[in-house]
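dumping this here before i forget
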Amino acid sequence: MSKLNTYLKQLNKAHDDYETKFGKGSLEDTIPYFDPVNPDIDNVQKGINMLNKAIETGKPLPKFSKEVQSDIIY
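structure:
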């Protein structure tokens, strides 16, 4: 298994832990915590750290405002 895949598994666990703490779907409309299009080890590690810090502090990640949400094109 590549090193990146190892970190992606850790990211998935952090994602699940976040949703356990803040509720299912709680990551919807949050600011991006990693780049899913071009993931690299550094970027994924930062995402893991952001999720874990939110869990530890009990403060969820910020969400996009309704205006910004309507302007985002996926």
